[in-house]
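Quick start: read one record
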Amino acid sequence: MNTAVPAPTPTTRALTWCLHLLVVGLLALAAGRAVADGRPHAGWVVAAAVVCGLVYAAGPLLPRVGRSRRAAALWLAAVDAAWLVLLALSADGVWVAFPLYFLQLHLLPRRAGLVAVAATAAAATGGYAAHQGSFGAAMAIGPSLGAAVAVAVAWGYQALYRESERRRHLIEELTATRADLAAAQHTAGVLAERERLAREIHDTLAQGLTSIQLLLRAAERALPDAPETAARHVDQARRSAVDNLAEARRFVAALAPPALEGTTLAGALERLCAATGAHHRIAVRLRVTGDLVPLPTAHEVALLRIAQSALSNTVRHAGAATAEVTLGLLGDHVTVEIADDGRGFDPARLPAPDPETGGFGLAAMRARAHALGGELTVDSAPGRGTVLTARLPLGRPGGTASGPGPGLPSGLDPDPVPDPAPEARP
């Protein structure tokens, strides 16, 4: 019957049923007392109570009463009219005024509801006084006090309901916002993971596949004049493939870099320099400065990956005879510097990365450094070599960029025979 509430809650349904039972009980009380006391016109009182009850019961059964305020007002007027007939026949009808107050306050606008309640209280007072044959202040106190209580209860319930609705809408908005935030975080996590995987693949599997390709190209050039050399290159390519397969498995399992297992970052860089110098026509040495402190795993992984990618670029593109990797502390930063005496390039005129030709190395290295709050600088010019420096701040826990991803691809084991026509892309 509530035209203001779109969907009754269990509480409102319970209150509605309590109101129904109160109306039925009071009508039965009026009819029962009229019969029990043997009052004159007892049959008329019973008939009026039954009619009032039937008119009241018709309201919940008529769908329009619950959807239209006008239909609800007409139904309420019919209930009031039946009640007035009952009140005219029996003084006990005055008690039915109390549930009528709630109906009027519930179904009518606030101002109209107050007027209806006041008129009902006045009718109850007048009807009771007419049955008693006199008027006293006590006769007005009961209906007036009941009307005041009904107004306070109804308005208090309406205020609580409005507050409950506001909270419900707020909870719905917060739930929707949380869902949107979770979706945004999921999307950001997916993008971050894709970026991380792209860096890992570039610095591990892509470098290893490049090494295998160059080894097989060198073996092809050695045939048929130098089959022993070709066989050695094929054997190195096979070992590189085995190492990269192991690297791929570690990569899928998200284990720490194998080059860092059981050793320090300096030891891993020493191994990297030795492997690069052994397989290529380039002298690579490691220099450690200062007293190194233990680093978070993410820092060690990032620095190892940067050195690995930088040396790979040096071997493939620089045409250098020597390279030096320097690991050390500079203030509150740990640094890795890779310097070579190769042909150099102009950092401001780098070609755009391309899926066919590559060119993602510097971008991946820079992303690794930035993800841990560091920076990557490149100092180079045509004809005077290249110096690449990665600086990471100390004291930052774990990072989120690299994570314990796959490590030094023994497959970097870059090409033991440099490409005779290296690309200009760094």
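The CA atoms of residues 261 and 268 lie 9 Å apart.
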